[in-house]
Amino acid sequence: MPDHHASSAESEISLPRLLGVLSDPTRLGIVRILADGAERGWGQFNAPVAKSTLSHHLKMLREAGVTQTRQEGTRCFVKLRGDALEARFPGLLPALLSAAGTDHVGEHVTERDEQA
Length: 116
What we know:
Layout: H1 15-22, H2 25-34, E1 40-41, E2 45-46, H3 51-63, E3 67-72, E4 75-80, H4 82-88, H5 92-103, E5 110-111
Antiparallel strand pairs: 1-4, 2-5, 3-4
């Protein structure tokens, strides 16, 4: 689905919603993969959950303003809204990602090369 809210004002990203969405280890794992700023196809995420569950996690991240998605034909791509998150909550995402790395949170989500 195209993300019509990709250019939403940073102020629309609420702290309670951001923290709530990032409290889930699978979603935090997705964000860890996206933290390098590169866009990825949905098929590149390898998580021990059903495809419908992974889709739900990606939707929650998008609706909270953490990611943006774009559709190209039948393929969907996702990218972290790092600049918007940093503008709204300076230093928060790097601190959360650092703590997640230290505590090994989200490591069950990996990236695979997309062959399609």
